[in-house]
Amino acid sequence: MSTDDRGTHDHDHDHEHPGTTPDVNETGYYELMAEAMKELLIEKGVVSADDVRRNLEFLDSRDPVDGGRVIAKAWTDPDFKKRLLEDGTAAVGEMGLTMGDAELVVVENTDDVHNMIVCTLCSCYPRTLLGLPPDWYKSKSYRSRAVVEPRAVLREFGTEVPDDMTVRVHDSNADMRYLVLPKQPEGTEDWPAEKLAEIVSRDAMVGVVLPEA
Amino acid sequence: MPLFNVGDTVRIKNSHPPGHRRTPFYVRGKTGVIERYCGDFKNPEELAYGFDGTPKRELYRVRIAQTDLWENYDGPAGDTLDLEIYDHWLEKAEG
Amino acid sequence: MNQRQHDMGGMDASPVEASAHEAEPWAKMITSLAAAMREYDVMRIDELRRALEDLPPEIYEQDYFERWSEAMVNLLEEKGLLTRDEVMSRMDAIKAKLGS
Predict the structure, then answer these.
(1) What is the pTM of this model?
(2) Which domain holds residue C52?
(3) CATH no. for A63-206
């Protein structure tokens, strides 16, 4: 197809200006397109309404709370942490969490190492543990620059990593998905896992900020 | 049997075939070290066109020094980039 | 050989803007549609990525879910599961029904 093909259809928006920001009508256009695709695919028997609903329910049930539970368990259960670092997929499976088609690699922040995650090719992200990725993770800014100037990108998130620490960037470019195991903040040693889980933000698990007590 | 061992020095092929490729442009031709073997996976470069993805490919995580990737890297020499590369994109290199 | 549009590592780009913006219901719906088709192996994520990479640059630069939608239509048409014309007609019909 070409973009010109779409110009032959009579819709109240304008595709003749490449690169312009979509306006409200444009959003309506894609809302209609999504609904049209859904209706057609169901009518044609490619998927059922139930399939779509079930997947939507699963998607809606995914958010960073589960990732936070994983991190809090690793902080409070050394054996679990060991298993999580050795085989992330199996370890989160113990908690009833799935990675879908992918495998989980958990990378640990230490006194010497800071880890951060990016997908330069698309926007691969541990969706089953964190939900849908934030806009910035999918942006050209982040995808382009996280691999070449990670420290500058981290500063844009307010995270300063001293030069005596190593920054390890992980490009999530194939079949693995990544979760950063942040360092447990000082002064939280006696906290129960439930309380710890609440201070683990989505961005901390992607490795662009540090958790704070 | 994995073709490469953890710690092996490998070169990512400097090849630019058309089509869907999971080896990013910025690492092609670069040298790094095998960080881990991830397992065997269907080849996404085939799956992307409706083929069955076999034979499966061995997938490795390769660790590359940032200073080897970018001429003017602004950071300490120890900073690294890890990513996943399928075996057919890798060749043994001199450590 | 040039770096392709989706293969962004190292490209020049502006500072990261950490905006918080929830995915809209329609965006979640096409994500769920894609997931349902993946379950039956009628549409693979690798195929969808390939369709995304092959989009014209002015479409690839659009919002993430907008380009997903465009790539899905192209891919489903390639697979013979529906046509862009069918989608367009249905969009008009839905719009007429909504009375807008």
Answers:
(1) 0.92
(2) 25-98
(3) 3.90.330.10
